[in-house]
Amino acid sequence: MNIKKIEKILELKRQKKLSKHNILPKCRLKRLSQKEINNNKNLFKKYRRSDLTLAGLTETFWLPNSTLKVGFDFSGYCVPERSKDELSQQIINLASEWSKHGSINLEISKDHTICDIVIAFNPYIGTFSYLGTDSKLPISKGKFSMNIDPSWAENIWNLDQEMQDENSDRYYLQSSVLHEFGHALGLIHEHQRPDRPFTWDIAWMKENIDKLGFDNWKFIVSEYIKTDPRSALTYGEYDFKSIMSYDWVKNATVEKIKCDINFTLSNKDKQQFGLLYPWKE
Asked: Residue 131's closest CA among 146, 120, 149?
């Protein structure tokens, strides 16, 4: 792990030389190709649901009333053994906020062969997660299904601190964990819904990529601009407060609509999750 890189990011953040758009690790949603899905039908058969069939949705939701086993891959990430256990438990504690609102429980497992989600902390490949049950494919090949940028894990071994400052490391880790686990539980980006109530200002975005926190136009196209047909499974109006939404400055949209970073589940997030994962009556 490049410790100097992590220390530099944290030091720049402390000196307020990086904006929130630069320092919050943006997520990439990993998608399987239709060929990968077709070639692994037997793998997915046990986990995929058949009760949700809206708009030809590629089904990636887990079975309701499931306990998902979560593993942690610290290979290449040099931290003390005690710290590994502590960080693992704190991430599960943060992610389990979803479990309060739907019938999915999370449980740590050190046997990756039986895991449903495996999390790595690689500082070079960005933050991402596979979508729902798609996570089983990389795990079946001995790989991880989610990566969390470790820059927030360097100084937050005591995550029980009060969250009084929205610039604190805990806020950003919490935002990343809730967002990535939203993907791992089958949710796509809110801002990629076909019915989003705004239009991206493509010309402005191309000229001001840095103000969105990126230097890669392909990423902006795939993770901001493109709509996702799987988001046809939506409930109610668009939710700017959703944990599954990115943030952006107002000039990024024709309507001059700004969206701030969200750190907690919105009321609509909680409602939708309960509808997708109802408890047994």
From this structure: 146
